[in-house]
Amino acid sequence: TFSTAAICQAMERIHAILPDGTIVQDIEVFRRLYEAVRLGWVYAITKYKVVENVGNVVYHLWAKYRTQMTGREALEVILQRRQAEAAGLGDAGSLCREDGHGNISCKLPVASGTAAKPAQL
Questions:
Q1: Upper half-sphere CA count for residue 118 (Cβ side, 13 Å)
Q2: Residue 63's closest CA among 27, 103, 105?
Q3: Considering the entire predicted model, what is its pTM?
Q4: Phi, psi angles (nearest 5°) of residue 34
Q5: Tens-place pLDDT, residues 21-68
Q6: Rounded distance, CA 15 to CA 19, Å?
Q7: DSSP codes, 16-83
Q8: In b/e form, how buried is each residue of 4-35, taking b as 16+ CB within 10 angstroms?
Q9: Rounded Cα gap, residues 31 and 41, in angstroms
């Protein structure tokens, strides 16, 4: 199995494996996918390194915070909850609460016999 941190890190960016085993990431994945379906012109401009770099910065921000930007919990919290549920610690529903000042704290379940670990987001 993979650690929650490793899964969270992998979920922060898109990856693709080419037929020769090469792994590509980020904007290059989208460019290659669009080329594969003959829509390469959509991402053709990203072949310029400067444009690709800017696109990757924007994409990294979107990918890392997409769950919060779409009104859901942080990706790490979602993965921690799934891990806890898989370990038989029950269905915790939403583990996060807002304090009314824009601060969110989450209680992440841990193995039985220990206290929940609070996380600040």
A1: 6
A2: 27
A3: 0.57
A4: -65, -35
A5: 998 999 999 999 999 999 999 999 999 999 999 999 999 888 888 888
A6: 13
A7: EE-TTS-EEETHHHHHHHHHHTT-GGGTGGGGSHHHHHHHHHHHHHHHHHHHHHTTS--HHHHHHHHH
A8: beebbeebeebeeeeeeeeebebbbbbbebbe
A9: 9
